[in-house]
Amino acid sequence: MKLFVYHTPELTPTGDLPDCAVVIDVLRATTTIATALASGAEAVQAFRDLDTLMEKSEKWLPEKRLRAGERGGAKVEGYDLGNSPLDCTPELMEGKRLFISTTNGTRALDRVARAQRVITAAMINRYSVVEYLLDKQPESVWLLGSGWEGGYSLEDTACAGAIAQGIVNVSTVGNDEVIAAISLYTQWQDNLLGLFHQASHGQRLLKLNGEE
Ligand code: MLT
To answer: Which CB contacts under 8 angstroms, 24+ apart, belong to 112-115?
Structure first.
């Protein structure tokens, strides 16, 4: 297995795809996706743009679907949900299909949608992701941060580092970013909440009353 870390979708090589892409948007899309599935959602469908989400979800029975739309950290008007994992309760999610579009996370998913395997990772499911990769042994793995509108996000790279740390040995390092991500995670691993407060999107969410 060869691991590569890319901080943003824009930094991934063009015209190339890995055997397995691991898309990371800790704050908050991939945390929301993991929570929705853990709460009994029957599936999650992610969309880069809101129009396609509406068109595809329209074909689904209203009582069997939930639409989640987020832009700039806020809920999009007319949607059932924004992008808070706290909304993904078993009462709401059980048996429903979640159709979701977010500012960066679903755009990152779209960038690697044609890779042989695509999975999502966040801090809350990082151990499962490590287990999955060790079990499947894909030849090439991209740990892809979603960032914020083309820029770097501290929490995504820290999560990439957490996953890489569980797998890495000398022969699995594909780029220098793997080592940098592991160093970042190692520095913050005992204070992840502090890292979320430090991160620019963490601060954006605080301004939107997103502390919880
Ligand atoms: C995104 O995709 O940029 C996010 O998940 C933003 C958020 O809702 O916090």
So the answer is: 112/9, 112/12, 112/17, 112/18, 112/21, 112/23, 112/142, 112/144, 114/17, 115/17, 115/18, 115/19, 115/20, 115/21, 115/142
DSSP helix, strand, coil percent of the chain (3-state; round to 5): 45, 20, 35
Q: Is 25 in the pocket of ligand 1 (CB under 6 A)?
A: yes
Other beta carbons within 10 angstroms of residue 192's beta carbon come to 16
Q: Output DSSP code: residue 176.
A: H
Ligand 1 mean position, distance from CA 71 (Å) = 7
Contact 92, 59 (CB under 8 A): no
User: Which residues lie below 8 Å from residue 43, measured CB to CB, with a gap of 6+?
Assistant: 97, 98
Sign of the torsion angle spanned by Cα atoms 202, 203, 207, 212: positive
Is the CB of 23 inside a 6 Å radius of any atom of ligand 1?
A: no
Give the model confidence (pLDDT) of 17-54 as tens digits.
Answer: 999 999 999 999 999 999 999 999 999 999 999 999 99
Spatial CA neighbour of 24 closest among 43, 52, 10, 5: 5
With contact defined as beta carbons under 8 Å apart, do 200 and 153 qualify?
yes
Total-model pTM: 0.97
84 lines ligand 1 (CB under 6 A): no
